[in-house]
Design brief:
Layout: H1 5-14, E1 43-47, E2 50-53, H2 54-67, H3 78-101, H4 108-121, H5 126-135, H6 140-162, H7 169-176, H8 179-182, E3 185-194, H9 201-219, H10 224-231, E4 242-247, H11 253-260, E5 271-273, E6 276-286, E7 292-303, H12 311-326, H13 332-339, E8 351-356, H14 362-370, E9 380-382, E10 385-398, H15 400-430, E11 434-436
Antiparallel strand pairs: 1-2, 1-11, 3-4, 3-6, 5-6, 7-8, 7-10, 9-10
Length: 452
């Protein structure tokens, strides 16, 4: 999904953490201190053997405030917003540290590629992106560091779930035959009020009280997304708690019956779950549809540069073959067998079989869109070399069952991965040393003893 630059910068700034070598600085000077002196930065939290600084928290909070500048009323009070953002910073720090401990590394080249993707998604060059970052008040070096941290955490996530997620054919069959799968999709938003591992009765009561406050605010007219920003402690809280479209089988079983009985716009009471209290809103629902797609039958000739053929010679050879096919009416299949560098299709006379439009990449798909059956494309270039495509025909294919099976596999994998990583994060946080040094940044009832 494409993100605007503002949204992307918001995301990376809100996820930033202090570098591991950050120096321990003195507490910030009191507000009434000599205005001619530059106030010192201060440590707001200690996370294992690292720190998070007030300046970092301020930068992340400011980025979120800028994101909601047109509707600031959706944001919670400043002290609540600071606590939410600090929780994100702490969680990111823990994940980066864990990834480093496991030897997970991201190269400069990979960061370069990610930066290029961000620039392309925003229709910019990298230099223009660098200028936009500077204009926003952030540093390009910091931006690259945050990109590297996000890539690192993604690899940590992949490594955690890789061994935890095994999917069998019987699981897929059971899901496809289940009433919940056939029930269609729902668009949900949620508010999550978590309780810590080993929660006491007082912890549970405090969470329930907070959930009641959120429900009362919604009943009093507060927008659900605004209530999520204000009350939820889920990682998507600052995104309004939007869970997007999900099939009924992707919803935790404890909530399935409740959601099945809802209508769009309905909000549940606070539902007790294994990790705390959840409030759900049904935004919309839809039924599955038949998946009929256009398939294409084509054949190709590929001429690739090599040690024997320069790029210019490859282009000229492709042009010569095109002229022989179009003007001299030579047999496409024979030329493909003799000259094509594509090992997967050459022996079949270039035949690519029947395939979905984008199966061979965007460049081939673009050519197919412009061709009629029995037409031959002019030579065009991809990373593999120079291609000539002949469209042999099209047909409508019902791929509902195949797509449903792939979706079921993905749904099972996503559910298992989500649960596995959630468990991992809870254990990671429970085993970490976290001390929040600023009293107003601690959650109500949170002790100052490194057990945050």
């Amino acid at each position: 999904m494409k993100q605007s630059l503002a949204l992307f910068l918001f995301a990376v700034v809100a996820a930033s953490v202090a570098p591991a070598h950050a120096q321990l600085l003195a507490p910030a000077a009191p507000t009434g201190s000599n205005s001619g002196e530059q106030p010192l930065d201060r440590i707001v939290a200690v996370v294992d053997d690292g720190v998070i600084l007030q300046s970092e928290l301020d930068d992340a909070v400011r980025a979120i405030q800028q994101q909601y500048a047109s509707n600031p009323g959706q944001l919670p009070p400043l002290n609540v917003l600071q606590r939410q953002v600090l929780e994100r910073l702490i969680l990111m720090r823990l994940q980066v540290n864990k990834a480093n401990d496991q030897g997970i590394r991201v190269s400069d080249g990979e960061v370069d590629q990610a930066v290029n993707r961000v620039a392309q998604q925003n229709h910019m060059t990298v230099d223009q992106l660098r200028g936009a970052i500077a204009q926003s008040g952030a540093s390009y070096a910091g931006f690259r560091r945050q990109i590297a941290e996000q890539l690192t955490v993604q690899r940590l996530h992949d490594s955690v779930v890789r061994d935890s997620v095994q999917i069998t054919d019987s699981e897929i069959n059971n899901l496809l035959n289940s009433p919940t799968y056939k029930a269609g999709e729902v668009h949900l938003a949620h508010i999550q009020i978590s309780v810590p591992a080993g929660a006491t009765a007082a912890d549970i009561q405090a969470a329930q009280t907070k959930a009641t406050e959120a429900l009362n605010a919604i009943k009093g007219g507060m927008d659900f997304n605004a209530a999520a920003i204000r009350y939820s402690d889920a990682q998507d809280a600052l995104d309004g708690g939007d869970l997007g479209w999900r099939r009924m089988d992707e919803i935790p079983p404890a909530f399935t019956d409740t959601v099945a009985g809802m209508k769009p716009g309905d909000v549940t009471p606070a539902l007790r779950g294994p990790t705390g209290f959840t409030i759900l809103k049904l935004v919309g629902q839809r039924q599955p549809e038949r998946q009929v797609i256009t398939e294409y039958h084509a054949r190709q000739i590929l001429i690739s540069p090599s040690e024997l053929i320069t790029p210019a010679q490859a282009q000229q050879k492709a042009q010569d073959l095109y002229q022989r096919i179009v003007n001299k009416h030579e047999d496409f299949a024979k030329l493909a067998k003799a000259d094509s560098a594509d090992d997967t299709t050459a022996n079949a006379g270039g035949d690519m079989g029947w395939f979905a439009k984008d199966a061979w990449g965007a460049a081939v798909a673009e050519q197919l869109s412009a061709l009629k059956p029995d037409q031959v494309s002019k030579p065009f270039q991809t990373e593999a070399g120079w291609h000539i495509i002949e469209l042999l025909g099209t047909r409508q294919a019902d791929r509902t069952d195949e797509i449903a099976r792939n979706q079921a596999r993905q749904a099972i994998g996503n559910r298992k991965a989500e649960q596995a990583y959630e468990d991992f994060l809870r254990q990671l946080k429970a085993s970490a040393y976290i001390r929040i040094l600023v009293p107003e940044l601690r959650a109500p009832g949170q002790p100052d003893d490194g057990t945050a």
